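pasting for the record
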Amino acid sequence: MWNKPIETADAPTMRDIQSQRLRQAVERAWHVPAYRAKMEAVNVTPTDIAAVDDLRKLPFTTKTDLRDNYPYGLFAAPLNEVVRVHASSGTTSNPNALTAANIQRSGNNPLSAIHRQRTNAITQNIPGQQHQSALLGAVTVVMSNSGNR
């Protein structure tokens, strides 16, 4: 196992860990002007978020939010602490920033084989995704549908 204490935690312990991490994420997001404005628009502050159940209080981040704030407007760390930014234009040719930590946050670990379906919409970011997978120690398997459905 990659992180045995967390991966084998009972449900109440896992809920406590998730709640703590949610509070930390919301506190970081509060210092990002775009996220803060969205939270203020729905009258939510970090002190309103105590547990996972409070997730429903938070506003959604939309694709438009990502596009409108690309590339620097959503950083929760100073630029000198940002190591890498990956982006995908998706189907609109407007860049969307992707966070490098998402591969790890989604539960992947050095034993993971991460499948990436290669379509025109994500082709340009596959090298970035492969690099992030490699840093984690996981394998990326890139497949092409060759126009078959």
